[in-house]
Amino acid sequence: MDPVITCRGCGIQLQTEHPDRPGYAPASAMTKETPICRRCFRIKHYSEVSSVSVLNDDFIRIVSEIGEKEAFVLKVVDLFDFSGSWIDNLRKYIGNNPLFLVANKVDLLPKQTNLEKASRWLQREVEKKEIQLAGTALVSAVKGIGIERVKTAIERHANMRDVYVVGTANVGKSTLINRLIGLFGETGDVELTTSRFPGTTLSAVRVEIPNYIHPLIDTPGILTNHRLTDLVCAKCLKLIVPDRTIDPRVFQLNSQQTLFFGGLARFDFLSGERQPFVCYVANQLEIHRTKLENADSLYEKHVGGLLAPPCDQCGNHLRDWIVHKLQLKKGQSTDIVISGLGWIAVHGDGCQVNVHVPRGVDVSLRPSVI
Question: A Gene Ontology molecular-function term (predicted)?
């Protein structure tokens, strides 16, 4: 049996086969006297924190340690996929430590979005969760929007507490930490250090910021299985994750018409007056319109081709669809949310629709964000 080699930076067991999993190091690094994982290497040499993800049980074990400490917790969610990136029962694990909500990716919202309205919407959604917060912030970690508000919250609430950053995979947690390092620390010639968070093996990583009292502790993102982004391969992921401001696409539909979102989701307008449906998905994802009577044959003939993603690497699980039957009331503006893909806004005309998605993917309704 090969000896176990651990990272001297964070303490995790090193491995060379899976770059997207914790503890990855290139084979060349394993020959060094004191090897470190790629993630710690990037923190140390480039002031860059890179993403790492764990399964639910490992995540719970890590965040449960927070409840035993004096901590200030930043909970990061994806504003574009709020319900899909929300972690339930986090308060159960972090105890009475103050919790601040960071809603990331505000830069993806269309340019005409009223951010005050979006902020009020966020507050209402949080109130439904019945969770006490120290505050909220709409931010774009990529663009640097709203980061000062997060910095101010840390200065106001952290006191002598360590600052933990938690969230699901792909919410932009690491990008946020890198932004905060830039605000708090000297990122020029100063070498940042990491150390293993006590009591864990799938490690949270402590980022010590020079000349600042509070370390930032980056916890691994929790892997979920209810978002389309969880189910596709890395190649197809690029086709469904927005990488720039969303351009809404409006389809004036008659009843008995269908929209295909690649080959990953299908929207059937069954009955109601002719009306617009506004689609908020990644700009690079193709949307195809057809008659409802032709939808089944179109899918069978073109899935993986004209209707892509998915590709062959994604597997057959994405072709095992279930139907969500929805009745929308007249006079209410509603978003139909497909977790990990986006949403379809229906502005008050009333209708009956079916939404087809791969088994396990969440479909939900909410008051319109925009």
Answer: GTP binding
- Asked which of 95-104, 163-172, 200-209, 360-369 is least confident by mean pLDDT, the reply is 200-209
> What single DSSP character describes residue 152?
H
Q: Is 94 helix (H, G, I), strand (E, B) or coil?
A: helix
Q: What percent of the chain has pLDDT over 90?
A: 54
Cα 329 from chain centroid (whole Å): 30
Is the CB of residue 328 less than 8 Å from the CB of residue 335?
no
Q: Using one digit for the tens of pLDDT, what is the confidence trace for 14-27?
A: 999 988 777 889 98
Selection from 341, 340, 339, 344 nearest residue 368 by Cα: 344
Calpha distance 169→116 (Å, rounded): 27
Residue 302, sorted as left (phi over 0), alpha (psi -120 to 50) or beta, turns out to be: alpha
Domains contained in the chain, number: 2
Q: What is the Cα–Cα distance from 280 to 192, expressed in whole angstroms?
A: 39
Residue 87 belongs to what domain range?
27-222
What is the CATH number for 173?
3.40.50.300
| 172 and 250, same domain (yes or no) | no
Question: What element of type H or E holds 297?
Answer: helix 292-302
Contacts of 276 (CB under 8 A, 6+ apart): 250, 251, 252, 253, 347
Distance CA 27, CA 196 (A): 22
Q: Provide the pLDDT for residue 206.
A: 79
What angle, rounded to 10 degrees, do the helices at 147-157 and 173-184 form?
70
User: Are both 202 and 248 inside the same structural domain?
Assistant: no
With a CB cutoff of 8 Å and minimum separation 6, the contacts of 3 are none
Residue 38 contacts residue 25 (beta carbons within 8 Å): yes
